[in-house]
Every structure is written in structure tokens, then in C-alpha cells.
Specification:
With about 625 residues, the protein is an all-alpha fold. The chain has three domains: about 5-95, no CATH class; about 110-350 and about 530-625, no CATH class; about 370-440, no CATH class. Helix content is about 60%, strand content about 5%. The protein is built from 25 helices and four strands. The strands form two sheets. A two-stranded antiparallel sheet has the order 1-2. A hairpin with a 6-residue loop joins β3 (about 410-415) and β4. α9 packs across α25. It is globular and about 75 Å long. About 35% of the residues are buried. Residues about 1-50, about 355-430, about 485-490 and about 500-515 have low confidence and may be disordered. It comes from Rhypophila decipiens.
């Protein structure tokens, strides 16, 4: 999101995208530029530095030859810097590697950044594949046409986009909640107010400003004729055999085009109702999630403020009740955001985010203190655990308190009481045998791997035809009838012209053919996948690998750039390959051409996304912080 020099500097350091927004301070930015200057000096600077001191002090009168030399040096320097900037950041970081800089280990939530990056790549694959192949239906649906191995559950996830959107929303809820919840738990309410204010102020810039720029780039491509190169191809049934995305219209004049862009962007910033697809823009149909993300973020910030002064256990209870309400209201996006909030606080309870000066023991003490707080709340409500009512003396006794939370046998925990700030100790008995078994490392690993497999199966819910797909018929019928939004339900019923059609339409809506039917299990699967990844070193090692972490850095850029790249360069490459190399006379030739074209299209999308990340995305983050700093007053 910054210039080239900053990207080199930033790739050598740990990404803290989920703890704080990715940005560099002005000092770091200056250091990055100085670092680049030292590694890639301009020819002019080399000449100047090499000159003797007396020549620097007493320069001869410039002649046309020296002026021309300076112009050529400046031009050569500019070209070199431009070339370096346009290289992918992972290449420039390798050729300018500083051996003095030690590579830091990934942070405790770096894996979530990797998950987000991989999800963004899969969304791109989805929009790339679905123009040519029917991918919404799963294995076994409608006879032999859906018996390809790539349509099997879990395997199909590498090109199934909708569940990746659900992953985005869980991670967003986590990332936006983490810092405020840290401040809530430390009772630093002054800093909490400043943090929430900052997040709200910058959220619109963070989400909408990059999309304004990406859609403006599409306007430029339209004016120079780049979209005209592939306009006929984009609507040719011979090549685009499934989804034919909107290939945006080229207006008669630049003024008319820009006025149309302004109107589209005004509608795009849609905050006035909660219809999922309101605010979508035909300029790039993939951007419908951005207004949804903005609205959900505002609701999350409101919830964080509203629950800030609650005790931890009651905050969980209240957020759980709110989640029940939004679930019953079929607001799947808010369920995902709130689950991200719950996961963030639970990680704080577990001591995952101890400060560098803290110790593992301090994190364990905080987690144990919270467990006792939970038990206190449950005890007041008379809730039973493991078949026994939670009761017992301060010093232990014969109760089973703490059993289901897995506290060790006869562990005395020092904690601070919320009421009088006095230190107390409590002793808890040994947990049930099933939890002692789950405490074994091998069984724990196996358990979370099993949960992740279940999660991936649920994420594989077909986008279409689940009611007739083997393995999904019963699950689809289990989806509650109220899952579909009442307004949409009523609108679709009112469009029927006869009682018979009314009955047919109602049955279709109630049993799995509504607009958001496929979101039900995909959302549940995304929740379980993020949960299992937070507990499994196996998944964390995968998501913390260098290639996946790189995708995490450019994830938003991939999301914004894959559309315009596909509609211009991507379609042109596909057309060339099919027309000149493989042909499309047979299915095998068609697939071979698609695969051959993808060898160029995929790297180009990643490359353009990398450049957009450094040129637009990172500067936008810094701009938001700069603007906030210039407009706000100090709270000291």
C-alpha cells in the first residue's frame, strides 16, 4: 500500500495486520526510502558522490552537454526506479536482501492473515472458473454431468468463492475487535474511546477509497479502449459457456463516463438498508461485499461500546443473545462478525496475546481467573455441568465446579475479585476423564483436525441444488424455514400469478432454493474452520508459510484487481489460446485452452495486485491515519 521502497522494508518485518492496521510511520517510511536509496542509487547520485570536494563546491558553468547528461541521468534513474517498483515485491526484497535484518517469527494471529489471503485467491479462482464451467452444483447433482472429481466436497473448495466470503467476515470481526477488547479487559476506557473513534473514522476510507480508485482505473481502461478489445468475447456463448459477467459500457465521451462513475460510486456507498446486494455496482460486480462489510463493522463497533463495561462472563452472555437474535433474523454476515468478536476475546482469555514483556504464566493466570469468573456467573444462575449442580465452598469441597472447563486437579488460582479488588485463592477439582483424554497432545491434534474436516465439508455446501445432491438432501431440509429474509420471501410470493404457482414458489423457498440457502452451512463451516485453525498448529503452520503470508498482504488488492484484469488481459489471453492454439471443438480442447491460459492469467493477477497493494492500498491506510491526526484533538 505504499511505494516500492516501503514494500521492501515491510516484507522484512512481521506483519501485524490483525493486531493493528498495516501501516508504517513517517519515520519508518523515511527509513525505507533511505534503505532503497542505499541499495539502488541513481546514476546521478553516484556521479555526484564520486566527484571531488572542490568540484562540488566550485561547479563550472553548465553547458548544453552537461544539461543533457543530467537529463539523461535523471531519465535513466526514473526508468530504473519505475522498473524496480513494477517488479513483484517478493523479487525486490530478495535482490535487496539485508543480512542484518533478522526474520521475525509469525505473531499469534498471523495465520488469520494467511487465511484471508488464501480466501481472496480462491474468490478470484471462483470468478475465473465460473465464466467457463458450471461450478455452483456439487458432485452427484442432476445425473452424470456432475460426476467430476473436482466437484467432490472439500476438493471443490479451491474454487468455491461464497464460503471464502464467510471466512472474510469472521476474520474481520476478529481483527476489528481485538484491540478494543484488550483495552476493555484492562479497563482503559479512555484509550478504548479513542480507539473506537479512530476505527469508525478510518473505516470508510479503508474500505471505500481503494474501491473508488480501482473503479476509476476501470473508467480509464474503458476510455482507452481496453474493454472494447474483449467486448464481443465477453458475451460469446462459444467461449463464455456459463456466467457472462457485465462488461461495463463505454460512454460517448469522457465527461459522460466520469459523471456515470460518480453516480455509481454514490450508490455504492450504501448504508441505508440491510439488503445484502444493495450498493453493488455494475462497474465491478464483485464488490458487493464492501458495503456489507462497512455496515457490519459499524454494528460491531456499537456492540463493543455497549458491552465495554460488562464483566467478561456477562459480555459473552449478552453477545450470545445478540447472536441468537441476528441468527433468527437470517443475518448471516452479522453472525460471522460477532463470532469473530467472540473468538478474539476467547484468545485474550487464553493468553494468546500476552505482551512481549508478559510471561506464559501471566497468560495462564488470566485464563484461569476468567474460568473462575465464568463459574461464578453460572453458579448464580444454578446452571448444571456434567450432571451436577455447580455449588461448593470457596475452598473447593466436593463439587464438580470447573470440571467442564478443564481446570487441573487441586490447582490454586490467585485472582482479583471484581467487587473489592482483593486477592483470593480457589481450589478446583480434577476435570472429567473425557477432558483429561482430550488434554493429551495427540488426541487434541486429532480432534481439531477432525473438526476442520467437518468444517470444510460444511463449507462445501452447494451453491445450487443442495436439495437434490447426495450428502446434502437431508442437511438442506434441516435449514430453518425462517432463514430467508421476510421481505424477499414476500416479494417473491407476490410475483406469482396463481395459487398453484404460489404454492410451488413457497415450497421452493422453504426447502432450499432461496437466495441465501447456501449461506447456512457455509457460514457454520467458516466459523468451525477459523476455530479449528486457532487450536491446530498443523493449520497455523500452513497459513504461516511464506507464500500464504504474502497472499495475506495483498489480499484486498487481489479482491479489487482480479475483476478488471480478467475483463481485459485475461479475456484477451483466453481468446488467443482458444483461437490460435487449442481450439474449442471438443471439451478436452476447451479445458486444455483454459488451463494453458491460466498459466499466464493467474500470475498477471497476482502481479497487478502486488503493484496495487504498494501503490494504492498501503498509502490509503497511511492517508487515513494522517487525516485523522490532522483533524482530531488530543484526549490528554
Amino acid at each position: 500500500m505504499n511505494g516500492h521502497a516501503v514494500s521492501i522494508h515491510s516484507l522484512q518485518e512481521e506483519s501485524a495486520a490483525l493486531l493493528e492496521e498495516k501501516s508504517l510511520s513517517d519515520i519508518e517510511s523515511d527509513a525505507g526510502r533511505a534503505d532503497l536509496e542505499s541499495r539502488f542509487p541513481s546514476s546521478h547520485s553516484i556521479i555526484t558522490d564520486a566527484a571531488p570536494f572542490h568540484q562540488k563546491k566550485f561547479k563550472p558553468k553548465a553547458t548544453w552537454q552537461t544539461t543533457l547528461t543530467r537529463i539523461l541521468d535523471s531519465l535513466r534513474s526514473t526508468l530504473v526506479r519505475t522498473f524496480i517498483f513494477l517488479l513483484p515485491s517478493f523479487i525486490t526484497s530478495s535482490i535487496s536482501h539485508n543480512p542484518k535484518v533478522k526474520k521475525k517469527k509469525p505473531g499469534p494471529t498471523a495465520y488469520l492473515d494467511g487465511m484471508r489471503g488464501l480466501a481472496a485467491l480462491i474468490v478470484f479462482f471462483c470468478h475465473y472458473f465460473y465464466t467457463c464451467f458450471v461450478i455452483a452444483q456439487s458432485y452427484g447433482y442432476d445425473g452424470l454431468s456432475n460426476h467430476h472429481i473436482l466437484k467432490l466436497p472439500i476438493i471443490r473448495l479451491f474454487y468455491q468463492g461464497p464460503p471464502m466470503v464467510a471466512v472474510f467476515f469472521v476474520i474481520s470481526g476478529y481483527a476489528l475487535s481485538l484491540k478494543p477488547l484488550k483495552l476493555v479487559r484492562s479497563r482503559d476506557y479512555g484509550s478504548l474511546l479513542a480507539t473506537i473513534s479512530s476505527l469508525i473514522f478510518r473505516r470508510g476510507f479503508r474500505l471505500f477509497l481503494p474501491t473508488f480508485i480501482s473503479t476509476l482505473m476501470i473508467m480509464v481502461l474503458l476510455r482507452v479502449g481496453a474493454y472494447e478489445w474483449t467486448r464481443e468475447f465477453a458475451y460469446d456463448d462459444l467461449y463464455m459457456r456459463n456466467v457472462q459477467e457485465i462488461h461495463y459500457e463505454r460512454m460517448n465521451s469522457t465527461a459522460e463516463q466520469m459523471a456515470d462513475w460518480g453516480r455509481e460510486m454514490f450508490r455504492f456507498v450504501h448504508i441505508w438498508d440491510w439488503d445484502a446486494y444493495e450498493g453493488s455496482t455494475a462497474i465491478d460486480v464483485h464488490l458487493w461485499t464492501i458495503p456489507v462489510e462497512f455496515r457490519a463493522s459499524m454494528m460491531l463497533f456499537l456492540t463493543l461500546l455497549g458491552t465495554a463495561r460488562l464483566k467478561t462472563v456477562w459480555r459473552f452472555v449478552f453477545v450470545g443473545a445478540v447472536m441468537g437474535f441476528v441468527y433468527r433474523s437470517a443475518r448471516w454476515e452479522m453472525v460471522l462478525f460477532y463470532m469473530g468478536m467472540v473468538f478474539a476475546e476467547w484468545d485474550l482469555v487464553r493468553g494468546v496475546h500476552n505482551s512481549p514483556s508478559g510471561t506464559r504464566e501471566e497468560g495462564a493466570a488470566e485464563a484461569a481467573a476468567y474460568q473462575l469468573e465464568v463459574l461464578d456467573g453460572l453458579e448464580q444462575q444454578g446452571i448444571e455441568m456434567d450432571g451436577e449442580t455447580i455449588a461448593g465452598s470457596e475452598e473447593g469441597g466436593g463439587s464438580s465446579r470447573g470440571g467442564s472447563l478443564g481446570l487441573d486437579r487441586d490447582v490454586q488460582v490467585l485472582f482479583v475479585d471484581d467487587g473489592d479488588d482483593t486477592e483470593k485463592t480457589r481450589t478446583r477439582r480434577r476435570p472429567p476423564i473425557r477432558l483429561r483424554l482430550l488434554g493429551r497432545p495427540i488426541l487434541t491434534k486429532a480432534w481439531w483436525i477432525a473438526v476442520s474436516i467437518l468444517a470444510m465439508y460444511l463449507m462445501s455446501q452447494p451453491d445450487q441444488g443442495g436439495e437434490e445432491t447426495p450428502g446434502w438432501v437431508t442437511l438442506t431440509r434441516w435449514i430453518p424455514k425462517w432463514w430467508y429474509a421476510p421481505t424477499k420471501y414476500q416479494q417473491q410470493l407476490s410475483s406469482c400469478s396463481s395459487p398453484e404457482e404460489n404454492e410451488t414458489e413457497q415450497e421452493a423457498l422453504l426447502f432450499g432454493q432461496g437466495q441465501d440457502q447456501y449461506r447456512y452451512y457455509q457460514s457454520l463451516g467458516a466459523i468451525l474452520m477459523v476455530l479449528s485453525a486457532s487450536r491446530s498448529l498443523f493449520w497455523q503452520n500452513i497459513f504461516n508459510s511464506a507464500p500464504i503470508q504474502y497472499l495475506g498482504k495483498i489480499s484486498y488488492a487481489i479482491y479489487l484487481m482480479h475483476g478488471p484484469v480478467l475483463h481485459t488481459v485475461g479475456y484477451a489471453i483466453e481468446r488467443f489460446v482458444w483461437m490460435n492454439i487449442t481450439g474449442v471443438e471438443t471439451d478436452r480442447a476447451y479445458v486444455a485452452g483454459f488451463g494453458l491460459a491460466s498459466l499466464l492469467v493467474v500470475p498477471i493477477v497476482v502481479w497487478v495486485s502486488d503493484v496495487f497493494w504498494r501503490a494504492v492500498d498501503e498509502p490509503v491506510v497511511r492517508f487515513g491515519k494522517w487525516l485523522e491526526g490532522g483533524c482530531t484533538v488530543s484526549m490528554d
